[in-house]
Amino acid sequence: MTSKGEQGPALRADAARNRARVLRVAREQLAAGDDSLQLNAIARLAGVGVGTVYRHFPNRHALWEALSAERFQELVDAAQAAAADEDPLAGLHRLLRFALLEASEDSGFAAVLESASDADAQTAALKAELDGAVARLLDRARRSDAIRRDVEADDVRRLLCGIEHAIRSGADDNPKRAEVYLDVLLEGLRPPR
Questions:
Q1: What is the DSSP-derived secondary structure letter of residue 142?
Q2: Who has greater pLDDT, 142 or 175?
Q3: Which sign does the torsion angle of CA 105, 110, 112, 113 carry?
Q4: Residue 27 in contact with residue 2, Cβ under 8 Å?
Q5: Which of 31, 49, 80, 179 shows a CA-CA span of 20 to 30 A to 141?
């Protein structure tokens, strides 16, 4: 498993500089409101060859993964804190609200979170850490009869991504709708009566 911030094998100094430059330009594009992340345009703006960009990021999703790594680590940290919470149901509620806020603020992060496959080993490791923490949290909540017995960590991630998609597909992007959808999810996690 890779540690926080680890990219895999060490890069040559020039390759590391090029990668950092591409990421900086991609972040600047996002900050300017352009979330298209067209790799050819980013290469031109970063002053590197298109092949250089594609060596580091074979597709747009791989670039989103790299850009989302810090946010993903924050989500893993929140899940681990929720799993350690004295009240597992309160921890689950807090985690779901945090995750929904993070995903709804960043469509690229949401795409990485919901993706069935990962381009980068770091992303796969973060997903495994997230699922492990959520599984521990769900086990504790099941033992206290606070949630259904048939819900797994992957189910929670998929349901949360569904809510994020429902919020994005709305015409008004109303934050109150997010709370309504989240309440529906939380009620649905309760054990049948």
A1: H
A2: 142
A3: positive
A4: no
A5: 179
Q: State the pTM of this model.
A: 0.84
Residues 193 and 103 sit within 8 Å (Cβ to Cβ): no
Residue with tokens 């540690």: 3
pLDDT in tens, 70-79: 999 999 999 9
Q: How many Cα atoms sit within 13 Å of 151 on the Cβ side?
A: 28
Give me the amino acid identity at 36. Answer: S
Q: How far apart are alpha carbons 103 and 94 in whole angstroms?
A: 14
pLDDT for position 166: 87
80-127 tens-digit pLDDT = 999 999 999 999 999 999 999 898 888 889 899 989 889 889 999 999
Tokens 């972040």 belong to residue: 27
Cβ–Cβ < 8 Å for 68, 106: yes
- Name the nearest CA neighbour of 167 among 158, 156, 176, 178: 178
Q: Is 49 left (phi over 0), alpha (psi -120 to 50) or beta?
A: beta
What single string gives the DSSP state of each residue in 44-107? Answer: HHHTS-HHHHHHH-SSHHHHHHHHHHHHHHHHHHHHHHHHH-SSHHHHHHHHHHHHHHHHHH-H
